[in-house]
Design the sequence.
């Protein structure tokens, strides 16, 4: 049984809409409009217990998952949705020991998901051209405890990628087609290229350049996520859904194309 220790991060879960990520400290209190919780009282208790606030409101004390860390980031840019991040991880096929180049760090939501996948032996090299965004991203990564698996770089990846023989190159940027030649040069054989693009014009330009290089399995998908309301005699799709967020284009490097 895993017990809560001082300094641990904790997710206080009231309901699906109200969750709070806190750090456990002996003399610290967490205040909400539903009362306060003495965080020191949780030290030595198992994750999953119920804790009651000063106003008698119950919370669950949960161990944060990577999805909790991603969704609770300090956001200065739009972050990718979990529906897209899950597909990205599946398509990249990365695991502990993988080396991945990312461009467009943003708020580091995807960076943290990638780092979680490659630790403890792998490394994420993430590029950002906006210094303010990089500062925000650094804070988010440091809070998550994943910084040992991330190397942050301030620079324009359209000018080249110094890392070689990497397992994947993933782009969340306005002009991914400008990176395609550098990505092919950086990737190991059979390595995966992936770009996230909000508009179909970006996809078309990127695929055109991919077709000019030794890449195979070039494909583009769009993912939709529809939640279901489940209740007795009232089960139905929710009225609102996460529709278009972006197009995901993937390809795999080969040494040369067959005639």
Sequence:
């Amino acid at each position: 049984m895993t017990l809560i220790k001082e300094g641990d991060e904790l997710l206080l879960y009231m309901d699906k809409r109200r969750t709070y990520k806190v750090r456990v400290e002996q003399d610290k209190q967490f205040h909400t409009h539903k009362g306060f919780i003495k965080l020191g009282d949780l030290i030595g208790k198992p994750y999953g217990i119920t804790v009651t606030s000063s106003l008698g409101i119950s919370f669950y004390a949960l161990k944060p998952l990577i999805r909790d860390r991603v969704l609770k980031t300090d956001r200065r840019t739009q972050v990718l949705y979990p529906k897209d991040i899950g597909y990205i991880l599946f398509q990249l096929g990365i695991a502990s020991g993988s080396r991945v180049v990312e461009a467009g760090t943003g708020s580091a939501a995807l960076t943290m998901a990638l780092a979680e996948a490659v630790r403890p032996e792998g490394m994420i090299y993430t590029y950002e051209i906006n210094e303010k965004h990089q500062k925000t991203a650094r804070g988010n990564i440091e809070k998550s405890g994943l910084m040992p698996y991330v190397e942050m770089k301030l620079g324009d990846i359209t000018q080249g990628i110094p890392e070689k023989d990497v397992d994947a190159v993933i782009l969340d940027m306005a002009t991914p087609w400008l990176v395609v030649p550098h990505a092919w040069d950086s990737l190991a054989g059979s390595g995966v290229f992936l770009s996230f693009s909000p508009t179909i014009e970006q996809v078309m330009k990127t695929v055109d350049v991919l077709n000019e290089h030794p890449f195979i399995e070039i494909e583009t998908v769009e993912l939709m996520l529809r939640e279901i309301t489940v209740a007795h005699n009232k089960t139905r799709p929710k009225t609102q859904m996460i529709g278009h967020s972006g197009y995901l284009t993937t390809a795999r490097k080969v040494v040369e194309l067959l005639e």
Summary: The radius of gyration is 21 Å. The chain has a mean pLDDT of 91.
